[in-house]
């Protein structure tokens, strides 16, 4: 998917800020409160509140395309994680998921990629991504990917 020059700057800045936040313990959220017209490559984080043991995000608006037929796929995704130090900022998650809209990817690989993003960027104790692709040709696909820090 082609990006205009401004979008590339946002994507690069978002990743740099997320990594910088984790190193400095001072998150600087770049998309919250801003008008963002393009998807981003990584989620942003903020400090996890004490005593939060589980966070769950659910959306039924995850779009991608079949890598073989190029037909659209629509999925429901549930992202559950046990935060250590960081939580995902929800607007950045929405913009991150948007990046898959025109991406040719199988449901199983998509679940694994989202789980990997959460594990690498947020560094939780555990993450589980459950993805249910709406039936096309009468077949519903369910894929689950789990990662643990231990």
CATH architecture call: 2-Layer Sandwich
CATH class: Alpha Beta
Which percent range describes the beta-strand content? 25-35%
User: What is the CATH third-level topology name?
Assistant: GTP Cyclohydrolase I, domain 2
Q: Structural class, from secondary structure content?
A: alpha+beta
Average pLDDT reading: 82
| Whole-number tally of structural domains | 1
Helix % is 25-40%
Cα distance spanning the termini = 36 Å
The global form is globular
Mind describing the biggest β-sheet? 4 strands, antiparallel
Q: Give me the side-by-side strand order of the main sheet.
A: 2-3-5-6
The whole-angstrom Rg is 16 Å
- The poorly predicted ranges are 1-24
Account of the 3D structure:
It is a single chain. The protein has 150 residues and is of the alpha+beta class. The protein has one domain: GTP cyclohydrolase I, C-terminal domain/NADPH-dependent 7-cyano-7-deazaguanine reductase, N-terminal domain (GTP Cyclohydrolase I, domain 2), CATH 3.30.1130.10. 30% of the residues lie in helices and 33% in strands. The protein contains three helices and six strands. Strands 2-3-5-6 form a four-stranded antiparallel β-sheet. It has a two-stranded antiparallel sheet with strand order 1-4. The radius of gyration is 16 Å and the shape is globular.
